[in-house]
Amino acid sequence: MNADRVDIIIRGAGLAGTSLMLALVEQGYTGKILVVDKLPKPDTQKTWCFWGDQNLPDSMRALIAKRWLTWSFSSDDEEFEHKTSSFDESYCCIKAEDFYQYALSKLTKTSNIEWHWNTDCEQIDSDDTACEEGVAIMLNGKRVSADLGFDSAGQCTAPDAALNKVPNKAPNTSIINQYFSGAWVTSASPIFDSNSAALMKNMVADNHCFEFTYILPFNAHSALIELTRFSTRQESLSDMQSACEQIIADGKYGTNIGNETTIERWEKGVLPMDTRIKPVKVGNWESIGVRGNMIRASSGYAFMIIQRWAKYAAAVICNNAIQRENSGAKDTHRQQIVFTKSAVPSLYTKLDSVFLKVMRTDMARAPQLFSAMAQHIEAGAFARFMSESASFKDMLAMINAMPKRPFLRALITPEH
């Protein structure tokens, strides 16, 4: 390709950028796409989980590494279990290495996509040029412009950076970040129950931090064991890795033979948990991924949110291209495309906003809140709520499961 003008520029070939390209190819898009990423190759040290595969493209369903029809929550001596018999409500996991292998095998064969790995680029469009050209970058000393630009680079995940993005924030208002450090563990002995995932095990909390262990057993001999913290203070991922190693060594995941396990690799990261953080906006660039708030603020789940958005955005882009072709448009000026649909439905954003306000106000209450969800909501309703497909009845069940006083107080009391 090597052109000075393309149709679409994508900065960052992460989950959001790659999913958009897959959706565009799936819908027959033939415009020129330029992809630039700072990394030499995709980051495969991660997993993505979600409930049900009904909104997953058919071609991706084979990527599901494991489904669980049972998942659990535990706090102190209490344990609550959800069970479903429906694959539409099952808890699913896709490994990043499988996703990128599939995606790259498909996308690198597509002639209208040009890849630049291990490459940095600078956004150079000003307000004046943005109106005329859409977006522009400097790539290897050359200016490249496009009608559309999608940016997931430089995602706002650091606590201080996230805090600065909260509009009209009161001086003493904190935000919650999700910190996680997880080990891929193997064992010579069959120590894991692969039929059940522990979503929140050993929940504990103080005034600043809610901690639990997340366990995904893929078979009797291997599992992802992850220490997770929702915290208003800055946590050390290296300290969390040490704590996770100790959990494994102590066998605190439900066995007494932690010394028989081997840690194969780690995955770790930080995610902002705040509906007040607005998508980063630069000129005509569309922010995507975490940078574009394509994440469920109350939980950190993003995979299916991004898949739904990618399908929608690709349809808008393809329909615009068809309309231009049918109208015989030959000008090279930018054709305005407006994406009116939010990645996360507004109702869920509002509900998450209240829930997170309760958490910020009284973090020590977190184990009680999640235990109430687990105890009083059936598996199907929980799965639908977590996947943004809840019925009115599901919503009522979720609201009724929560203690009323802290939520009413959060609704009427401004934060200080």
Automatic annotation (TrEMBL):
Q: Which InterPro entries match?
A: FAD/NAD-bd_sf
Tell me the Gene3D superfamilies matching this sequence: FAD/NAD(P)-binding domain (3.50.50.60)
Any Pfam family: Lycopene_cycl
Protein name per its UniProtKB record? Lycopene cyclase
Question: Lineage of this protein's species?
Answer: Bacteria, Pseudomonadati, Pseudomonadota, Gammaproteobacteria, Alteromonadales
